[in-house]
Inverse folding.
């Protein structure tokens, strides 16, 4: 069935280290993969996205990689900072324009 | 200012009493969507709309209705709310074409059904 699996559900990293969150999706026709950040009590906001015709995209400390064959994509945050602490959601846009989100990863940046 | 607005922000109601949560966007977006957010379950899509008079079921449409009579508005209707619909609801909108389908989320509506 339609599914996006996200791992891990919780991640703690030392400030300055890197964080990696992974997602897999079930529909090979999915063509758009966004990542959203949600701070406590706030709405989700897009931080980076990638289309299916691109393998990697980078924006300063944030990067997303996509492996279409394996149907998985990952978020990479380098040189983590306290303000990176939040819940991160991956998502995939299905062929019928439905959007399926992963269950989220709570990222803790330790001082 | 480009934005998505939702009303009300907080609502406590009783089982069976019909309610409507409004959503409006001023960005001329074609795509609009409703999500519910529950602890440990992430964001689940309820309904979405690709344009005026076009709506489709998302992952969890049971117990909800929507309409899209105008491009800017996409109300969520609960005809007979039940306690399992207690949740945080987000409306979102995005463009339908281009390089990004970035969704802009509203501030959320916290609904409690007793």
């Amino acid at each position: 069935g339609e599914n996006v699996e996200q791992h891990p559900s919780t991640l703690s990293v030392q400030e300055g280290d890197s964080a990696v969150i992974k997602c897999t999706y079930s529909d090979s026709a999915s063509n758009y993969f966004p990542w959203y950040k949600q701070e406590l009590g706030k709405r989700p906001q897009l931080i980076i996205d990638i289309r299916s015709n691109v393998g990697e995209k980078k924006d300063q400390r944030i990067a997303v990689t996509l492996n279409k064959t394996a149907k998985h994509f990952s978020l990479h945050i380098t040189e983590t900072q306290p303000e990176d602490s939040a819940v991160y959601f991956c998502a995939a846009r299905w062929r019928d324009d439905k959007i399926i989100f992963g269950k989220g990863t709570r990222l803790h940046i330790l001082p | 200012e480009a934005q998505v607005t939702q009303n009300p922000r907080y609502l406590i109601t009783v089982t069976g009493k019909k309610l409507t949560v409004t959503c409006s966007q001023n960005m001329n977006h074609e795509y609009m969507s409703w999500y519910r957010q529950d602890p440990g379950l992430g964001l689940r899509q309820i309904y979405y709309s690709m344009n005026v008079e076009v709506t489709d079921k998302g992952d969890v449409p049971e117990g909800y209705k929507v309409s899209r009579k105008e491009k800017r508005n996409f109300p969520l209707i609960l005809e007979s709310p039940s306690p399992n619909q207690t949740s945080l609801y987000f409306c979102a909108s995005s463009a339908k074409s281009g390089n990004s389908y970035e969704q802009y989320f509203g501030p959320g509506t916290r609904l409690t059904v007793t």
